Amino acid sequence: MASLNCRVCKMLILKCPYCGASGEETEFECGGEAHLKRFGPGSGDDEFQGYLFDRVNRKGVHFERWRHSSGCGKWFHAARNTETLEIYGTYSAQVLEPPAEIREKISGKVPGWSWREFS
């Protein structure tokens, strides 16, 4: 029987921006892609279908919604890298874009990255 290589069994460590608690991803619940444009009453079928089903699913820098399900229960956003599993930071779900310090951290680690490609 093959043994597991622990370097492969890496878990995400998230920090809730509301209560400040850090923990493994099992203490949180992923809610999918963050910063989606939601369409209200009067929107067309194509817009609503795009909102429900179309996802970018990028390789590299990605923004996600998470809920601190084993703690305060609040939703927040996380900026992370899907290739390296690095967490660049977490922030309030009530903002329209990541804070400047998280954008600067990503720009310093991912050459050529720009928030404009996400907005």
Structure description:
The protein has 119 residues and is α+β, with helices and mostly antiparallel strands. It has one domain: Folate-binding superfamily (Folate-binding fold, 2-Layer Sandwich). Helices cover 16% and strands 26% of the residues. It has two helices and six strands.
How do you describe this structure in short?
This protein is α+β, with helices and mostly antiparallel strands and 119 residues long.
The sequence of SSEs as H and E is EEEHEEEH
Strand content: 25-35%
What number of domains? 1
The level of helicity is 10-25%
- The tally of beta strands, per DSSP, is 6
Mean pLDDT: 88
Spatial gap, N to C terminus:
48 Å
Count of alpha/pi helices: 2
Tell me the overall shape.
globular
CATH architecture heading? 2-Layer Sandwich
Structural class by helix and strand composition:
alpha+beta
Please describe the biggest sheet, giving its number of strands, its sense, and whether it closes into a barrel. 4 strands, antiparallel
Identify the strand order in the major beta sheet. Answer: 3-4-5-6
Gyration radius over CA = 16 Å
| Uncertain segments | none
Keywords:
119 residues, alpha+beta, Folate-binding fold, 4-stranded antiparallel beta sheet, two-stranded antiparallel ribbon, 16% helix
Q: Secondary-structure map with pairings?
A:
Blueprint (H helix, E strand, L loop, with lengths): L12 E3 L6 E3 L4 E5 L11 H9 L7 E7 L7 E7 L5 E6 L7 H10 L10
Antiparallel strand pairs: 1-2, 3-4, 4-5, 5-6
